[in-house]
Amino acid sequence: MQQSHVTEGRISMNKNIKKAFGKGKAFIPFITCGDPSLEVTERIVYAMEEAGIPFSDPTAEGPVIQAANVRALSGGVTTDKIFDMVRRIRQKTSIPMVFMTYANVVYSYGTERFAKVAAEIGMDGLILPDVPFEEKEEFAIPFKEHGLDLISLIATTSHERIAMIAKEAEGFGISEPKQAEKMASQSDGVIVGSAIVKLCEKYGADCVPHISTFVKEMKDAIR
């Protein structure tokens, strides 16, 4: 990942997310919906579950993730198509899943409508990296009403704000693949994004077994 972050969850943590952190160190993989296709994204989720991990389903910043977003959008991915994919996934698995996207995506879809649909299809929470912690209530309130967590991100350079945000935190994750073992010793779990997205870019539709192997290795590293 281009920048490491700490994840923060509210005290009233979604029970599915809380369960994931109750089984030891959590490895949270991070991919872009629709890269290289929604069909492959769905297969990646199932492969990750077989590796025994929770799953985060986002779009995000940084050149690697930006390129993945371009590939996904070029393939015709939309919010509603992603929702449909989640409906299919939820017929086969109950692993924790969190959307990561930008505030404008939620706002343009309709915040209340987005929260309602996300809850109905079985999502567990949302990360909006461009919403400052101090301004999160506009989104947090409707999502909380539907039983979903709005999880804040903290840059490691935000020294004076970390203590304030961490007061509400129940789980942390900070990582790059090489840092996984070290970071897991200092946190409740780790998040890895770009390394997985690079496998999608390199192998395209054939990426699933490569991602599965990588995830298993990362999971072993944090145990």
Structure description:
Helices cover 49% and strands 13% of the residues. The two termini are 21 Å apart. With 223 residues, the protein is an alpha/beta fold. The strands form two sheets. It has a five-stranded mixed sheet with strand order 1-6-5-4-3. Mean pLDDT is 79; it is low at 1-12. Helix 7 (137-145) links the parallel strand 5 (125-127) and strand 6 (149-155). The protein has helices at 15-21, 38-50, 63-74, 79-90, 103-109, 111-121, 137-145, 159-166, 180-184, 194-203, 208-222, and strands at 5-8, 26-29, 55-58, 97-100, 125-127, 149-155, 189-192. It is globular and about 40 Å long. Helix 2 (38-50) runs parallel beside helix 11 (208-222).
Structural features:
223 residues, two-stranded parallel sheet, single chain, five-stranded mixed beta sheet, disordered N terminus, alpha/beta, 7 strands
Order of helices and strands: EHEHEHHEHHEHEHHEHH
What is the count of helical runs?
11
Q: How far is the first residue's CA from the last residue's CA?
A: 21 Å
The shape is globular
Number of strands: 7
Beta-strand content: 5-15%
Q: Within the largest sheet, what's the order of strands?
A: 1-6-5-4-3
Determine the structural class based on helices, strands and strand pairing.
Answer: alpha/beta
* Share of helical residues: 40-55%
